[in-house]
């Protein structure tokens, strides 16, 4: 069995290279998070005075790696975060980055799934993100369940930001995009073996669906007014509002 035939695990030591390689794989990776930050701030600004003066609280789903926490936390001193991720190793990366940035006192980490978080009927979260997670959830029903669980922890009118790989494997457009993405990754120093592992993982370790399916899932989970604000090959980011 070749190394690129071995399924990748989020508990494998190789994930410690995630912070180093992800920005080489996705064009404008950091820019996507900066855009997300500005959109959250723009949405929350008119309602910044929360009930009883409480702090603005964000739910970060798939917080392992720490990109959201560092990007948002360094720009907004009055925001608090709950970062949740099932991978202990990925949370280690996030915790280290948060500590280096001096943000530990504003971040609570939870290892597990969103379902394990108590629903916050009295003080639901003011916003939530789920960046580069949905395509790792297998099946439409499970994807919908994740989005419903997130919606259940947001107050009405709260913004939700979703980024995922959206694609229809087997189509001509898919093949063209994959060739272009391969060229980008290899030109940026990603090894051929790592590219081959990535392509082999589609449909096996990841379950990308079409953009139209993502929009339908958002609607079924109780989110409205979806807006696509970022695109980079198959990676798309959407902003929607909890109904």
UniProtKB/TrEMBL annotation:
Pfam family of the protein (one): Methyltransf_25
InterPro entries given in the database record: Methyltransf_25, SAM-dependent_MTases_sf
GO molecular function: methyltransferase activity
Keyword vocabulary terms for this entry: Methyltransferase, Transferase
UniProt cross-references to Gene3D superfamilies, sorted A to Z: Vaccinia Virus protein VP39
UniProt name for this protein: SAM-dependent methyltransferase
Methyltransferase as UniProt keyword: yes
GO biological process, one term: methylation
Keyword set includes Methyltransferase: yes
Ranges of residues in domain Methyltransferase: 59-157
Signal peptide residue numbers: none
Transmembrane segments: none
Annotated organism of origin: Paenibacillus tyrfis
């Amino acid at each position: 069995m070749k190394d690129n035939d071995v399924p990748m695990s989020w508990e494998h030591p190789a994930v410690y290279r995630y912070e180093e390689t992800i920005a080489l794989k996705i064009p404008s990776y950091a820019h996507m998070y900066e855009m997300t930050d500005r959109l959250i701030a723009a949405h929350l600004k008119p309602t910044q005075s929360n009930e009883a003066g409480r702090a603005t609280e964000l739910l970060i789903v798939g917080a392992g790696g720490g990109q959201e926490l560092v990007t948002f936390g360094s720009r907004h001193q009055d925001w608090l975060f709950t970062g949740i991720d099932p991978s202990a190793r990925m949370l280690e990366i996030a915790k280290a980055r948060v500590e280096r940035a001096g943000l530990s006192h504003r971040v609570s980490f939870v290892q597990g799934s969103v379902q394990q978080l108590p629903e916050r009927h009295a003080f639901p979260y003011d916003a939530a993100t789920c960046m580069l997670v949905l395509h790792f959830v297998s099946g439409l029903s499970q994807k919908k369940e994740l989005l419903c669980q997130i919606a259940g922890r947001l107050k009405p009118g709260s913004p939700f930001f979703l980024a995922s790989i959206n694609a229809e494997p087997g189509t001509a457009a898919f093949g063209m995009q994959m060739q272009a993405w391969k060229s980008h990754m290899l030109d940026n120093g990603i090894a051929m073996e790592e590219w081959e592992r990535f392509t082999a993982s589609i449909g096996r370790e990841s379950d990308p669906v079409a953009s139209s399916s993502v929009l339908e899932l958002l609607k079924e989970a109780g989110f409205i007014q979806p807006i696509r604000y970022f695109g980079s090959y198959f990676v798309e980011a959407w902003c929607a509002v909890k109904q």
